[in-house]
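[job 0417] fold request received: DUF2281 domain-containing protein
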Amino acid sequence: MLTTITGTYENGQIIWHETPPVKERTEVIVTFLESKEDKISSDKHKRRGGTMKGEVWISDDFNAPLDDLNDYM
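[job 0417] inference complete; emitting structure tokens
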């Protein structure tokens, strides 16, 4: 049986946010997620919006029907 529950690791202990559904000794795998501090520091390295302004354009006839598809229309 595979079951996922959440918890918080702090000061060498895991505090479960819900009760595990097992009563007997069971092997577990613990996966550590990125901390909020790590997310904040990694956000600094993300690209900013608007850096390609004026570099990308769409043709005025972008939505016009294609002549190649006239047989199917």
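[job 0417] notes: The CA atoms of residues 2 and 27 lie 11 Å apart. The radius of gyration is 26 Å.
[job 0417] exit 0
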